[in-house]
Design brief:
Number of strands: 13
Order of helices and strands: HEHHEHEHEHEHEHEEHHHEEHEEHEH
Number of helices: 14
Helix content: 25-40%
Shape: globular
Radius of gyration: 21 Å
């Protein structure tokens, strides 16, 4: 297993600006192969999908290639991969489609841990809402907390695979088993999780899994993975002339072909650049690459944790036993917004806020303000962490 951080960083033009980026949970910087793939797609003949003209064939190849790439990344079937404008849009689409099949009194389960994109679509679906709580002291969301709000009327459980605010990774397979025992479907927000761990949607037990390529080095759009046979049972609203075939049934309008090219390139980058010695299929190389990434991020997270422990007046709200390398901080007698600005002036990007995890922020007692979020991405290195800790030390001395 070889993780060459210097070689990896050399592929990111944005890093030449000299900024230490800890804003990966909000969106990563883009490697040159992804940028080039987007430009190359736009430079070649391109038109609506088909098989007659070169432009049609190019578009078709970009779509099918991106479906295969995302299927390899998520352990899914290419024919169960749906593309959309964002994970939020895809979740709303699924919620509206499922809600048409529900009856008065049917229930959905949402959690206080989730990003609002996996809460509000279900709250607004018309179903009766049951809330599963996480422990604000530990950050843990347990399967027992889910079981406590399940019933024979539960139609769906919406849960995050990793909190974008505090990093908590619930036991999704156990939660899915509990949901399936009462006949409920499981919708998993994998936006934050996919950036840090190899996904296997079948092993997770997710009926629906959404993610966003721009969180793992790709362009801005959303991806949904589901079993093709499940998608065949659903009838979303769509235009009359548009195809009824799965997965295209769920894709509205013309797809962003150039972004799909960038997504394929991002998956290939993860397969080829995280572990330079990895061999085998793309899925096998992705598995090796993510193992190398997790080892690298564990070292940096330990460096962050050790440095924060030496600082007075810092509260760390990321405490779950299993969590991503994402840390939420607040400060005694200091504003997190001021910390954000102070660090930014010193070339350290660590934003402040609740980051759309508004229910989680309120449940932690942080209101709508949230905290300072420090999140790692594949290109972070030890000098980045040193700059972060030095910046925080200087800020707290003010």
């Amino acid at each position: 297993m070889t993780y060459d951080i210097a070689a990896l960083r050399s592929h990111f033009p944005a890093l030449a600006a000299g900024i230490a980026h800890f804003d990966g949970p909000g969106g990563t910087q883009t490697p040159e192969p992804v940028i080039r793939a987007i430009a190359d797609a736009l430079a070649r003949p391109l038109s609506n999908r088909g098989q007659v003209t070169l432009g049609e064939r190019n578009a078709e190849a970009l779509v099918t290639g991106a479906r295969r790439a995302m299927a390899d990344l998520l352990g899914a079937s290419p024919s169960g991969i749906v593309f959309g404008r964002s994970a939020t849009q895809l979740t709303y689409d699924v919620a509206r489609t499922l809600a048409k099949t529900w009856s008065p009194g049917d229930e959905v389960v949402v959690t206080r841990l989730d990003h609002d994109a996996n809460i509000r679509p279900w709250v607004q679906s018309g179903a009766t809402v049951r809330w599963a709580e996480f422990d604000p002291k530990t950050g843990e969301l347990t399967v027992d907390a889910i079981r406590a709000v399940l019933s024979e009327r539960t139609r769906l459980v919406a849960v995050t695979a990793a909190s974008n605010l505090i990093g908590t990774r619930p036991d999704i397979p156990a939660i899915a088993r509990a949901a399936h025992e009462v006949g409920a479907l499981v919708h998993v927000d994998g936006v934050h999780h996919t950036a840090h761990a190899l996904v296997d949607v079948e092993a997770l037990g997710a009926d629906f899994f959404v993610c966003s390529p721009y969180k793992f080095l790709g362009p801005h759009h959303g991806v949904l993975a589901a079993r093709p046979e499940l998608l065949e049972t659903l009838r979303p609203e769509k235009l009359l002339p548009s195809t009824d075939a799965v997965p295209e049934r769920f894709e509205l309008g013309t797809l962003p072909y150039e972004f799909l090219a960038g997504t394929t390139a991002a998956v290939d980058f993860l397969a080829e650049r995280l572990d330079m010695e990895a061999t085998g299929t793309r899925r096998e190389r992705l598995a090796a690459g993510y193992a190398a990434l997790e080892a690298h991020e564990r070292l940096l997270r330990a460096q962050i944790d050790e440095g924060l422990a030496a600082l007075d007046g810092v509260t760390v709200h990321s405490r779950a036993a299993d969590r991503t390398p994402t840390v939420l901080l607040t400060f005694e007698n200091h504003s997190t917004a001021d910390a954000y600005g102070f660090l930014a002036e010193r070339g350290v990007q660590a934003p402040a806020g609740s980051f759309y995890a508004i229910e989680a922020s309120r449940h932690l007692g942080l209101g709508d303000t949230g905290g300072l979020r420090v999140g790692l991405a594949p290109y972070n290195d030890s000098p980045d962490v040193d700059r972060l800790l030095t910046g925080l030390t200087d800020f707290l001395k003010r």
